[in-house]
Specification:
- Helices cover about 30% and strands about 35% of the residues.
- The chain is built from three helices and seven strands.
- It has helices at about 5-15, 20-30, 50-60; strands spanning about 30-40, 45, 65-70, 75, 80-90, 95-105, 110-115.
- A hairpin with a 6-residue loop joins strand 1 and strand 2.
Length: about 120
């Protein structure tokens, strides 16, 4: 069953807040296509559930206790979407960014490109 862009994006953002490598992989598997790619100012073409999960684990190590939130509901048409997010990092001001997403035929993320200023 195809999920809506809103549901997929909500699941994606929630996945960044999950703790524990196995639970992180399980969370991303709900919204991330097998060969999906992730690119941001620091990383290029992180691929697959294992890749995005490893990036998330590293993010927890760099900023323990950080929490991501959907800031604006996604604008979407066809198989693409755009939305903004925020991250609360303990001891720092709230930061934010914008993600561009392409979905596969099942509504999972096939490509995500994130734009944000330095978070540290």
């Amino acid at each position: 069953m195809k999920t809506s862009p809103e549901e997929t994006i909500k699941q994606y953002v929630v996945s960044w807040n999950v703790q524990g490598e196995d639970d992180i992989k399980a969370a991303f598997a709900k919204c991330w296509a097998a060969e999906a790619t992730y690119t941001d100012p620091n990383y290029e073409n992180v691929t697959g559930v294992d890749g995005i999960a490893a990036l998330c684990v590293g993010s927890h190590q760099l900023a323990p206790g950080r929490i991501f939130h959907v800031h604006t509901l996604p604008e979407h048409h066809h198989n693409v979407a755009l939305y903004t997010w925020t991250v609360d990092i303990p001891g720092k001001e709230t930061k934010g960014g914008t993600d561009y997403i392409e979905f596969d035929e099942d509504g999972k993320i096939a490509k995500l490109v994130s734009f944000f200023p330095p978070l540290q």
